[in-house]
Design a protein that fits this description.
heterotetramer, A mainly alpha (141), B mainly alpha (194), C mainly alpha (460), D mainly alpha (101), A: 141 residues, Cytochrome Bc1 Complex, Chain D, domain 2, 2 domains, two-stranded antiparallel sheet, 5 helices, D: 0% strand, Cytochrome c oxidase subunit IV (chain D), transmembrane (chain D), membrane (chain D), Cyt_c_oxidase_su4_prok (chain D)
């Protein structure tokens, strides 16, 4: 390999390139943040939805399910469970767990109150109305 | 560091530091993929792209091409002068190159201001997404290039470069020519070709 | 071992291996739950097992990184560690906090745990990989700061090599980006957006600096290639990693409510992400081929080369498979994601930690290399774990392709659970591959206890 | 630094000032050509081919002379020119595909 290859130059290019691409990421992040309200359904982000998100988190739902495709892959996608099943089915389903069917995957009983169930459903409704660029491909998630 | 010490003047030599050439290859790859993706996406939305392309200011695009080419020429002159052993005399050439690059930035800012004023953003349409993404990605390269030219200017002014020490100035020059090179495709692709 | 304070690395490495064993035990349990759904229910539901599995992975890798730093920073900077006592204290704090957290997961209801640990003051729990209680998260920050203080002070008083600088940059980045785990807005899209600033900017950003620095350190030691050469290439490789990986974050912003342009930015830049991994593989093989000495520790060389190849396959190739937005539209959140996750973590981070352990452990135990017999056992464990991981990945990929086909591509899409039943054969095969992996891990642990004539340490 | 007096052997990779100026003039002329095509609003396969050929020609001058890869080890100009050729022809292909649609 003819020509020069110095550690100092390689270092400068590393720092320059890193700063450059990090700034680019920040620039895109700024644009995303300013335009996020167009897609994030924040108009419907009520205190009840936030309370529902808290239920979602403190029951570690993400440990089995996916939400908008992120989470574990053990149980169904719930980003669109609201249009798939509707509010009453969701509440009844959560209340009737676990099924106890031998050999089948089991969901724990969380003993949620009616209020908590409503909050959780509100959160799932809000989530289903986020503009996720037409994902998932169909209602089965 | 056996730099240019051989007696044979005809030996092939990569100008500048090898490290910048890896960086340049990565950049060319990124730009190349971006260009090709643009072209194939356009093939599916020809009417949209043709219509919105007309809203771009071709003349400022052409002016910017001239500015970048001229700036590149000045950098070549700076390298030639430094190579001849006159580091300090390279400084004005680099200053001129910087001025042209800064001119590019100014023209581009006017162009962006006009588009943003018209309410156009990355999310307006596929065409504007590409127009803004590609030109902004390139725009940031111009800014980085200007920082590098300023550093080279400082080096030249303090007499750092000469036939025995061309690595810094050649490395910066190679990067700047790359910024020019991708614009040579970007301009006809996004502003002109229909 | 050239500096006595390097010996603080020893407990870190032992803890790492111990937690690794725990991680695999829970991995096997989950593998079984995939096919025998009510296994261990309701004592250890899947979500608890998974949380333990992934959190143990993160914690033992962090133990590995810290141990690696305590081992290589004194040697690189040519000075004793600033405070070995602080390092040992942090070891115990981190181990006890980590163990308490895992026990909390296992024996306390997650909601109760959240209430007990201040989640109502600042809600940070219940997000994938960041399930740790607030107290644990704060503990991690404190341990990380004390660790970074210790390492940075060591470096300030010693020689500043490229390897130590890159290692330190990576570790500082790790600590800084972890701070985003404290940001959990009610807006789910924002939550997810910045969640990736921890997860992606860790594993496809700053962790790659740590990994490259660790690999470069071992390569210098086992090949004897000139430091200048290795350090220049180190810079080039990490430049490529960050140039592609930073904007590559966009491949997580396709379907979570973020603007559509991320599909383009994310696809284009993450499509280039295999390049640094490929460069790392070429680099590792190149350096070994140009070696100037025959290091007695053959096993360490094998782990190092394995890191290059498996990181390229797992992170590079399997990442590329589903990184383009039109493909990811169908594969997002399927078993293909799981396949990629397994091989990428194993190839890049598990192997690099095992590489440094393989190199440093004999030295910490007062010998240049283990006995021939011990090394043979260790190399067997490499092949058992690596090959079984390849099969785990292949079976999950097959499961994923079938899942995507039945549930998402087909004109008559099937419900999730029905599809899971259809692909259970692949889950069974994955489980058996996992059993082989566990056998490999037992072999690995056993290799530390194999007797035989070890190579004596010759102090230069 | 002193040694530089006694070593005028530095292989000049960067041509002469005149050559650089002539190339600059050619590049500007080519840019004007592209701009004129745009102002006239010409379109079609021939125009696409013309514009991509102009871009390729300009790129070649930059790569070989300004970047000074003409005197670099053969691999480098080949990679750069290969990139240019590949990108220009892929773009041409995509435009041709756009015509058919």
């Amino acid at each position: 390999m003819s020509g020069t290859f110095t550690k100092a130059m390689a270092r400068n290019i590393f720092y320059g390139g890193t700063v450059f691409f990090f700034l680019l990421l920040v620039a895109l992040t700024v644009d995303t943040t300013t335009n996020l309200h167009k897609s994030d359904n924040s108009a419907n982000l009520t205190p009840q939805v936030v309370a529902g998100k808290h239920i979602w988190e403190t029951r570690n739902c993400i440990g089995c399910h996916t939400l908008l495709g992120e989470g574990a892959y053990f149980a169904p996608e719930l980003g669109n469970v609201y249009p798939r099943r509707g509010p009453e089915f969701i509440k009844a389903w959560i209340q009737s767990q676990p099924t106890g069917a031998p050999g089948r995957r089991q969901m724990p009983q969380f003993h949620l109150t009616d209020q908590e169930l409503d909050d959780l459903v509100a959160f799932l409704k809000y989530t289903s109305e986020i503009n996720a660029q037409k994902w998932p491909p169909n209602i089965e998630g | 560091m056996a730099r240019n010490s051989g007696p044979e003047t005809t030996a092939r030599r990569l100008p500048g530091d090898l490290a910048i050439w890896f960086f340049i290859l990565a950049e060319l790859l990124a730009f190349g993929v971006f260009f090709v993706v643009y072209a194939f996406t356009r093939a599916n939305h020809v009417e949209l792209f043709n219509a919105e392309q007309l809203t771009l200011d071709r003349t400022s695009g052409a002016i910017n091409t001239v500015l970048l080419l001229t700036s590149s020429f000045f950098v070549v002159r700076a390298v030639q002068v430094a190579e001849a052993g006159f580091s300090r005399r390279a400084a004005p050439w680099l200053a001129a190159a910087f001025a042209c690059g800064a001119g590019f930035v100014v023209v581009k800012i006017f162009e962006y201001a006009e588009k943003i004023g018209a309410g156009i953003s990355l999310s307006s349409s596929t065409f504007y997404m590409f127009y803004l993404s590609l030109t902004f990605f390139h725009f940031m390269h111009v800014i980085l290039g200007l920082v590098i030219i300023a550093a080279m200017w400082n080096g030249a002014r303090t007499g750092r470069y000469g036939p025995g020490n061309m690595n810094g100035i050649e490395t910066g020059a190679a990067y700047w020519h790359m910024v020019d090179l991708v614009w040579l495709i970007l301009f006809p692709l996004i502003y002109v070709m229909r | 071992m050239k500096y006595t304070s390097q010996s603080v690395a020893l407990p870190y490495f032992i803890a790492a291996i111990g937690l690794f064993v725990g991680q695999i035990v829970f991995g096997l349990a989950m593998g079984l739950q995939y096919v025998v759904g009510d296994f261990l229910f309701p004592e250890i539901p899947f979500n608890v097992a998974r949380m333990v599995h992934t959190n143990l992975l993160i914690v033992w890798l962090l133990f590995g990184f810290m141990g690696a730093a305590y081992y290589l920073i004194p040697e690189e900077t040519e000075t004793e560690l600033y405070s070995p006592k602080l390092a040992l204290l942090m070891f115990w704090i981190f181990l006890i906090a980590g163990a308490a957290t895992i026990l909390g997961y296992l024996f306390v209801d997650y909601n109760t745990l959240a209430e007990m640990t201040g989640n109502n003051i600042l809600a940070t729990m219940g997000r994938e990989f960041l399930e740790q209680p607030l107290l644990t998260k704060i503990g991690i920050v404190i341990v990380a700061l004390a660790f970074l203080f210790n390492i940075s002070m060591t470096m300030l008083k010693g020689r500043k090599t490229v390897i130590s600088i890159v290692m330190l940059l990576g570790l500082w980045g790790l600590a800084i980006f972890f701070l985003f785990s404290f940001y959990n807005p009610g807006n789910l899209v924002k939550d997810k957006f910045y969640w990736w600033w921890v997860v992606h900017l860790w594993v496809e950003g700053v962790w790659e600096l740590i990994m490259a620095a660790m690999l470069a350190f071992v390569l210098i030691k086992v090949t004897g290639v000139d430091r200048e050469v290795i350090e220049k290439w180190l810079y080039v490789i990490i430049t490529l990693a960050l140039v592609t990986g930073l904007i590559g974050t966009g491949h997580h912003y396709f379907w979570i409510g973020t603007p559509g342009y991320w599909q383009w930015w994310g696809s284009i830049f993450s499509a280039l992400e295999p390049i640094p991994f490929f460069a790392m593989t070429v680099f590792a093989f190149n350096m070994v081929n140009r070696r100037r000495r025959e290091h007695p520790n053959k096993a360490a060389v094998l782990w190092a080369l394995g890191t290059g190849v498996m990181a390229f396959l797992g992170a590079g190739v399997w990442g590329f498979l589903h990184t383009l937005a039109p493909v990811n539209f169908y594969t997002h959140g399927s078993q293909i994601t799981a396949a990629h996750g397994h091989m990428a973590f194993y190839g890049a981070y598990v192997l690099v930690v095992l590489t440094i352990i393989s190199y440093a452990m004999p030295l910490l135990r007062g010998r240049a290399a283990n006995s021939q017999r011990a090394q043979v056992v260790e190399m067997w464990s490499f092949w058992l774990m690596t090959i079984s991981m390849v099969f785990i990945t292949l079976f999950l990929t097959a499961a994923g392709i079938l899942q995507v086909w039945l549930q998402r591509v087909s004109d008559t899409p099937m419900p999730f659970m029905q599809v899971q039943d259809q692909i259970s054969l692949f889950y069974w095969m994955r489980l058996w591959a996992g059993v082989v992996f566990a056998v490999g891990l037992v072999t690995y642990v056993a290799s530390f206890f194999v007797k035989g004539e070890s190579k004596p340490l010759i102090t230069p | 630094m002193q040694s530089s007096l006694s070593s005028p052997r530095h292989a000049s990779s960067h041509g002469t000032p005149n050559r650089a100026a002539i190339i600059w003039a050619a590049l500007i002329f080519a840019t004007m050509l592209t701009w004129m095509v745009g102002e006239r609003g010409d379109a079609g396969p021939a125009v696409t081919a013309l514009l991509m050929t102009i871009a390729f020609a300009k790129g070649t001058l930059i790569i070989l002379d300004y970047m000074a890869l003409r005197r670099a080890p053969l691999m480098w100009p080949l990679i750069a020119l290969g990139w240019m050729l590949l990108v220009c022809s892929m773009i041409g292909l995509a435009y041709w595909k756009g015509l058919a649609a």
